[in-house]
Design brief:
mainly alpha
């Protein structure tokens, strides 16, 4: 009466006084109650050992509540040395007397193999007993066993039945699970409104999982009106309780400025918390923030650290990112074999980016033997998943007939798929196919349409500092494709790319200086930029630099240097480099005169020009005509030369 304030003023000290009197006389209920007062520190100083003392007395007299409480003390090592077997002993004593809490606890011990051999069927037996007595925790646990098919045949409807029983008793975990069943349509008809109803009930009780799920429903507008601010509200509640998924999602909201003011530093803060808890998505996102220098100082090594953490958890996107870091030598020593290792792992898990990257490694012979067929295999895998870059790459393989039979219609098919997703490279390629009537009926209007689309996308990316896009936009202005030709704009954008170290931009800028388009003609500047591109391995820059040395433009004339750079380009498969190297051997310039070597390189060039000509590329047709006219690498044949010149002229080659 004193403990509960019934008939007298509530007074824990008085309650203890009277419990002690009765307990000393051997009253088991009083002993149990006195033990609880010591355990909770009510009316006496908190003392687990004294609690165990009184629970033991009552338990030995057969009091089921005391037996249950004593089992709990042994299970958690409170007032006694932790001992799961003793815990099971006392839980069983109480469970056999019909104590629902003890039955639930005993079921939990069997489920987890603590103090007894793990046995799902026995766990279900005891959960069932307690659930039938109305114990909400047991009902939730029994629902879990049905949901996962543990100890019973898997049955979502039965899982829902028991979750609902517990949920209606305000068990937050059951409410959360029931919400999940409604969200996913498991055991019940899918119903987002009901999912929100149950998530809300559990979230209001402080259940972090429910708060996270409710945040998702608001963020995605499922079962409720879409509301990012409410999404952030619930993510924050769960995140502050240490829920890693909520922390990751909250980081996303800050990173994207959804429901809160955009704040990269806050995004990093929450990603860091979740990543430290082992949440792989957060680790990937945190790695990306370090890679891009968003919210933190740019740091490739730290980016690699977090990518690796997630990659080791078999997260494909992290494995793909880690492969990219090895391929580019960012944050780690450049290592194509390790790049391939990680690309392979991610590709085998179906990651489209990794499949595309693996195709690129095969195409370019990076870390393995070049193999166009394998490149096509991986490009196709990614392309069929809708990955735009792979679709573009696959289109190029069809257009060039490398690794597949040459097929312009298939090339157009894949270019179109990527172009419709906004891939600027494919938009440009599709424009070219329409312009030349290759794989489609020739149509200047459609060509211009796609060139303009490409220009728009290049401009957006270029204005954000993307060096590749800056070079491509400059080249579109230079050629006047989809935009009015503007050499000044061409120089402006190519310079932007070149100054960021983009090799293609450097080569393009070199051409503009050499030709005096958009800038005052300046061979010295042309050579400067060609040199920059050549040193990065750009084959076109290497060939152009070779010509500058051969002709003594912008540098002192030097056939040896010319030959050096022509060889660099030739060995990368550049047809012009091969042709020019053949000339140097034929004429004995920069190398000892050698007709065999001259013929070898001319033939290489002729093969490249022939493939381009057969693809109906005007430049390739013209160059092949020149090879026939001069008899370089192939038998001199003026008729064939005329044939290919005519073909090129029909396509508008000057």
């Amino acid at each position: 009466m004193y403990e509960n304030g019934r008939g007298v003023e509530q007074d824990d000290a008085q309650a203890v006084h009277w419990y002690r009197k009765a307990a000393s006389l051997g009253d088991a209920t009083a002993q149990t109650n006195l033990g609880e007062m010591y355990e909770k520190g009510r009316g006496v100083e908190q003392d687990n050992k004294e609690a165990v003392h009184w629970y033991s007395k009552a338990a030995s007299l057969g009091d089921a509540t005391a037996q249950t409480n004593l089992g709990d003390m042994y299970e958690n090592g409170r007032g006694v040395e932790q001992d799961n077997k003793e815990a099971v002993h006392w839980y069983r004593k109480a469970a056999e007397q019909g104590n629902a809490t003890a039955q639930t606890n005993l079921g939990d011990m069997y489920e987890n193999g603590r103090g007894v051999e793990q046995d799902d069927k026995k766990a279900v037996y005891w959960f069932n007993k307690a659930a039938s007595l109305g114990n909400a925790t047991a009902q939730t646990n029994l629902g879990d066993m049905y949901a996962n098919g543990r100890g019973v045949e898997q049955d979502d409807a039965q899982a829902v039945h028991w979750y609902r029983k517990a949920a209606e008793q305000d068990d937050a975990m059951a409410q959360t699970n029931l919400g999940d069943m409604y969200e996913n349509g498991q055991g019940v008809e899918q119903d987002d409104t009901q999912a929100v109803h149950w998530y809300s009930k559990a979230a209001d009780q402080g259940n972090a999982t429910a708060q996270t799920n409710l945040g998702d429903m608001y963020a995605n507008g499922r079962g409720v009106e879409q509301d990012d601010a409410q999404g952030v509200h619930w993510y924050s509640k769960a995140a502050e309780q240490g829920n890693a998924t909520a922390q990751t999602n909250l980081g996303d909201m800050y990173a994207n400025g959804r429901g809160v003011e955009q704040d990269d530093a806050q995004a990093v803060h929450w990603y860091n918390k979740a990543a430290s808890l082992g949440e792989a998505t957060a680790q990937i996102n945190l790695g990306w923030m370090y890679e891009k220098g968003r919210g933190v100082e740019q740091d490739d090594k730290t980016a690699v650290h977090w990518f690796r953490k997630a990659a080791e958890q078999e997260y494909a996107s992290a494995q793909s990112n880690l492969g990219q870091m090895y391929a580019n030598g960012r944050g780690v020593e450049q290592d194509d074999k390790k790049a391939i290792h990680w690309f392979n792992k991610a590709a085998s898990l179906g990651n489209a980016a990794a499949q595309n990257n693996l195709g690129w490694m095969y195409e370019n012979g990076r870390g393995l033997e070049p193999d166009d067929k394998k490149a096509v295999h991986w490009y196709r895998k990614a392309a069929e998943q809708g990955y735009a870059s792979a679709q573009n790459n696959l289109g190029m393989k069809y257009e060039k007939g490398r690794g597949v039979e040459q097929d312009n219609k298939q090339a157009v098919h894949w270019y179109r798929k990527a172009a419709e997703q906004g891939n600027a490279w494919s938009q440009n390629n599709l424009g070219r196919m329409y312009a030349n009537g290759r794989g489609v009926e020739q149509d200047d209007k459609k060509a211009v349409h796609w060139y303009r689309k490409a220009a728009e996308h290049y401009r957006k990316a270029a204005e954000q500092g993307n060096a590749t896009a800056q070079n491509n936009l400059g080249w579109i202005y230079y050629k006047g494709k989809g935009v009015e030709r503007n050499y000044t704009q061409a120089v402006y954008w190519c310079r932007k790319a070149a100054e960021q170290g983009n090799a293609w931009g450097q080569d393009s800028l070199g051409q503009m200086y050499q030709q005096g388009n958009g800038v005052e003609q300046d061979d010295t500047q042309a050579t400067f930029w060609y040199h920059k591109a050549a040193e990065q391995g750009n084959a076109w820059g290497q060939d152009s630099l070779g010509k500058m040395y051969q002709q003594g433009k912008g540098v002192e004339q030097d056939d040896t240097q010319a030959t050096f750079w022509y060889r660099k380009a030739a060995e990368q498969g550049n047809a012009f480099g091969q042709y020019h190297l053949g000339q140097m051997y034929q004429q004995g310039k920069g190398v000892e005169q050698d007709d065999t070597q001259a013929t070898f390189w001319y033939r290489k060039a002729a093969d490249e020009f022939r493939q381009a000509a057969e693809r109906e590329e005007a430049n390739g047709q013209f160059d092949l005509g020149k090879m026939y006219e001069n008899g370089h690498g192939i038998a001199q044949d003026e008729t064939k030369a005329s044939h290919w010149y005519h073909k090129a002229a029909e396509q508008g080659h000057p």
